[in-house]
């Protein structure tokens, strides 16, 4: 199935400034889906959700997106344009879908032939850090790495919690930023990780987004709130976690608002690309 792409480039025009005091951010920062919770409770509640869904995470992604999430992650890595020797941080990347794609791109026969380097050299020089606060999600990724022969991959490093290395060429986060308590702080951290390097550090975020086309919006609303929680109950035995996941999408800022937040964090040439109307890839550069 071909992707229909609509790109909104924001770097060439004045962006609206995003106020951390706005009701949207306050509501998101203190919400757990549609419930209002104390900030100190949210991290634990989100952690419980992903502990519950970890074992069925990939299966449910395939079912919920009809397999399209694979194409969306391919597009994310294509926009990243990985290169041998890079330091990269993939946040909320426990199951390693994005990390594996980055390594595949770097270690491809075509790229090695063009650059005339050996695979062993790439393994020693390239570092892809998989960072996740949830040990269950990381364990899923580690098992997958073993299954596909990457268990001893020197370029693949696992980090539970916050990454300490702050010299990254790239920073990706897929389906994770809507779950943090303070989005603007997460974006500031992303900027810090890429700001200390030579110019050109890249931030890319893949996230489920808002649908504004009237007919499709109605269908998407029905699918989100009726079908997805039911799938969660039937496949994973967990309706509540998937109810939270669809609610968290609705609480996430609109695409242009989120792009403004990325710019406010310091990134330049901010843009977003909508994929089949339900997912967006946001990007920014450290210049």
Map the helices and strands.
Blueprint (H helix, E strand, L loop, with lengths): L4 E5 L13 H7 L1 E2 L2 E2 L2 H15 L3 H9 L2 H13 L6 E5 L5 H10 L2 H7 L3 H7 L1 E6 L2 H13 L8 E5 L9 E5 L8 H13 L6 E7 L5 H23 L2 H13 L3 H10 L3 E8 L3 E7 L2
Parallel strand pairs: 4-5, 4-7, 5-6, 7-8
Antiparallel strand pairs: 1-9, 2-3, 8-10, 9-10
Structure characterization notes:
The protein is α/β, with parallel strands linked by helices and 287 residues long. It has helices at residues 23-29, 39-53, 57-65, 68-80, 97-106, 109-115, 119-125, 135-147, 183-195, 214-236, 239-251, 255-264; strands at 5-9, 31-32, 35-36, 87-91, 127-132, 156-160, 170-174, 202-208, 268-275, 279-285. An 8-stranded mixed β-sheet has the order 1-9-10-8-7-4-5-6, sandwiched between helices. The chain has a two-stranded antiparallel ribbon with strand order 2-3.
């Amino acid at each position: 199935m071909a992707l229909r792409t609509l790109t909104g480039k924001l770097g060439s025009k004045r962006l609206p400034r995003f106020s951390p005091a706005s009701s949207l951010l306050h509501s998101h920062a203190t919400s757990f889906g549609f419930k209002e919770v104390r900030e100190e409770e949210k991290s634990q509640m989100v952690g419980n959700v992903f502990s519950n869904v970890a074992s069925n995470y990939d299966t449910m992604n395939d079912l919920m997106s009809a397999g399209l999430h694979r194409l969306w992650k391919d597009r994310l890595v294509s926009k990243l344009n990985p290169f041998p020797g890079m330091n990269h941080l993939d946040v909320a990347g426990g199951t390693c879908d994005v990390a594996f794609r980055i390594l595949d791109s770097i270690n491809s026969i075509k790229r090695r032939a063009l650059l005339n380097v050996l695979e062993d050299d790439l393994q020693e020089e390239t570092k892809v850090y998989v960072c996740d606060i949830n040990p269950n999600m990381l364990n899923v990724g580690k098992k997958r790495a073993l299954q596909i022969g990457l268990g001893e991959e020197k370029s693949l490093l696992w980090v539970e919690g916050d990454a300490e290395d702050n010299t990254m060429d790239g920073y990706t986060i897929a389906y994770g930023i809507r779950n943090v308590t303070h989005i603007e702080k997460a974006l500031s951290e992303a900027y810090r990780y890429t700001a200390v390097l030579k110019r050109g550090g890249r931030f890319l975020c893949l996230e489920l987004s808002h649908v504004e086309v009237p007919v499709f919006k109605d269908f998407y609303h029905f699918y989100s709130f009726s079908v997805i929680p039911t799938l969660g109950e039937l496949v994973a035995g967990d309706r509540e976690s998937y109810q939270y996941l669809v609610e968290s999408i609705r609480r996430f800022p609109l695409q242009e608002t989120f792009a403004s937040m990325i710019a406010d964090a310091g990134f330049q040439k901010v843009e977003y690309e909508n994929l089949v109307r339900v997912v967006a890839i946001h990007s920014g550069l450290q210049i």
